[in-house]
Amino acid sequence: METRQIQYFLEVAKREHVTEAADALHIAQSAISRQIANLEKELGVELFIREGRSVKLTPLGRIFYERIKQVWYLMEDSKREIREYLNPEKGTVRIAFPISMAAHTLPHIIYSFRTRFPEAKFQMSNALYYDLIDGVVNGQFNLAMIAPMPNLEKEKKIKGDILFTENIVALIPLHHPLSDRESIRLRDLMNDQFCVLPEGFVFREQVVQACNGAGFSPNIAFEGKDIDALKGLVSAGLGVALMPEMTLVDNTPRSTVVIPLSDSRLTRTVGVIYPAERDLLPTEKLFYDFLIETYERLNEFKN
């Protein structure tokens, strides 16, 4: 089994299309088809169901894909580790994050890190909550910012640290009857229409649970695919939304008001996780230590 066979197989499996895989790898379609055919011959099974240039993994192909993907990540990490061992300040950090951290939290910390290590590089991707955990476990990336912080007693394959705890606040239309209040109770919004994230988002679950804890079920009138969509819905006067405070830093939409909630339990933890069974690469370890150091200082300043 050759390295290029693995690379070609993974690219075709990811895209489910031979032409697109060939374009991404900058090689001829015939070369990909030939190498995959050789791989199937060596394994003695068909890995793909072929429909012209489109393909889908067979059941055995899916099993092989999940296993060999982890092997590929380990191979790539090994090569990076050797390069970064000599000069970790010029290496690459692979990190994932939820979309709620894209506008403020992560860009600011990366900027600060690159002020100290200007030649460090980043490969960033965003994902949903459970995909962040799975991606760290299977080696798709080694670091992930995440909120809320998972229960490490239950998630045995990851480790991590809480960086800070943030408040959940209410975002309401400018002309809402409560818009002039300095703070409100969550129960004060029980008769309002709520704008929430779609099913499957952990923050949506937290919003619903918080409302239930305040003695009511939220009247969910609108769903937005991300935090920015929720801001737009509230700005249009279509309802209210609960938001992580950091998503509104320097970014409060027009025609809206941010109101603190007096319910003290309405917070969420923000942390960083890494694999329990793999060491961080040198540059990633630099960034991880920088994260811990930076937020320890910030938390001391707040207190």
C-alpha-based Rg, rounded: 23 Å
Total strands: the figure is 11
> How many helical elements?
9
Assembly state: single chain
CATH topology of the largest domain: D-Maltodextrin-Binding Protein, domain 2
CATH homologous superfamily classification of the largest domain: Periplasmic binding protein-like II
Percent in helix: 40-55%
Number of domain modules: 3
- Nearest-integer average pLDDT: 89
Taking the sheet with the most strands, its summary is:
7 strands, mixed
Measured by DSSP, the beta-strand proportion falls in: 15-25%
Q: What structural category arises from helix and sheet content?
A: alpha/beta
Pfam families: HTH_1, LysR_substrate
Family: Belongs to the LysR transcriptional regulatory family.
Keywords: DNA-binding, Transcription, Transcription regulation
Domain HTH lysR-type: 1-58
Account of the protein in words:
With 303 residues, the protein is of the alpha/beta class. The protein has 3 domains: 69 residues, Winged helix-like DNA-binding domain superfamily/Winged helix DNA-binding domain (Arc Repressor Mutant, subunit A), CATH 1.10.10.10; 115 residues, 3-Layer(aba) Sandwich (D-Maltodextrin-Binding Protein, domain 2); 104 residues, Periplasmic binding protein-like II (D-Maltodextrin-Binding Protein, domain 2, 3-Layer(aba) Sandwich). The protein is built from 9 helices and 11 strands. The strands form 3 sheets. Strands 3, 4, 5, 6, 9, 10 and 11 form a 7-stranded mixed β-sheet that branches. Helix 1 crosses helix 2, helix 1 packs across helix 3 and helix 2 crosses helix 3. The radius of gyration is 23 Å and the shape is globular. The N and C termini lie far apart (57 Å). GO terms for molecular function: DNA binding; DNA-binding transcription factor activity. Pfam families: HTH_1, LysR_substrate.
